[in-house]
Amino acid sequence: MQTIITKNQAEMSAKAAELIIEQVKAKPDSVLALPTGKTPQLVYAKLVEAFQQGRVSFAGVKTFNLDEYVGMCRTCADSFYVYMKQHLYDHVDIRPENIFLLDGAASNLDDECANYERDIKEVGGVDLAILGIGRDGHIGFCEPGMSFDSRTIVVNLDESTRQANADDLVELKEVPAQAITMGLATIFKSRQIILLASGEHKAAIVAKALEGEVSEQVPASILQTHPQTTVILDEAAASQLKAS
Ligand code: PGA
User: Fold this and answer.
1) What sign does the dihedral 151-153-157-161 (CA atoms) show?
2) What is the pLDDT of residues 129-146, one digit of tens each?
3) Pocket residues for ligand 1 (CB within 6 Å)?
């Protein structure tokens, strides 16, 4: 695991965007796993900027989002599909048929999970996964206690996660109680992973995930054992690391 500490969120985002662009240039048909939330917003803005400058094309890229709320229709204001459209898809040349997202409103969620795993397998697996980290150590929506062997699955969201995400809501009054998420084994199989964190409020969990015991109680700690993970932090998020 390589850790890069940047001055602030803008620098963290610029660094992450450069690594993504490098990946896409090296392999134009790259398969990316992508997050939502506050952390990656500026990363997507940088990717859009690079596309507009003609520095990168997403025409061959396939994307798989990490997660979605259960019950959420694709075009609902709070769906991660709408988030992705607003932040990335509407502004770059990615092909609609190359965009894969979990359908939280699917009538059979078990089938939805199995189909997602099949789709990921069929495209040859994820080349690069971009991850944020929740204050409880979750990646995707893999909450503490979830098995490191888990595949795409329906989960109950922790109360802290529901509270943390509440201020992102556009239409809903409260965050749904359940989500559908790539499992930890699904994420771990990605050939390359970038974990992002910025801000003081992430410092404690970043230290625990990167320097503490590898434990299913801290889902992100699984990344300590991944062969190709780059962690990009800003100074505030890195402030409780012993090694910084
Ligand atoms: P955030 O969420 O980027 O909104 O802080 C991170 C996460 O929950 O993975």
Assistant:
1) positive
2) 999 999 999 999 999 999
3) 37-39, 132-134
What are 99's two structure tokens? 């965009």
* β-strand partners of 68: 180
Helix/strand/coil for 229: strand
| pLDDT at residue 244 greater than cutoff 70 | no
> Is position 18 annotated as part of the catalytic site?
no
Ligand 1 midpoint to CA 166 (Å): 11
Q: What number does the ligand 1 atom closest to the CA of 133 have?
A: 9
Q: Which atom of ligand 1 is nearest to the CA of 164?
A: 4
Sequence-distant (≥ 6) Cβ neighbours of residue 140 within 8 angstroms: 35, 66, 67, 131, 181, 182, 183, 187
* Catalytic residue, candidates 87, 103, 112, 138: 138
Question: To 5 degrees, how large is the angle CA 222–CA 224–CA 226?
Answer: 80
**Quick one: pLDDT band at residue 104, thresholds 50, 70, 90?**
very high
Q: Which fold has domain 2-234?
A: Rossmann fold (3.40.50)
Active site includes 67? yes
Query: Of residues 68, 103, 127, 136, which has the active-site annotation?
Result: 136
Of 36, 81, 80, 27, the closest CA to residue 58 belongs to 27
Predicted structure pTM score: 0.97
Active site residue 87: no
List the chain domain ranges: 2-234
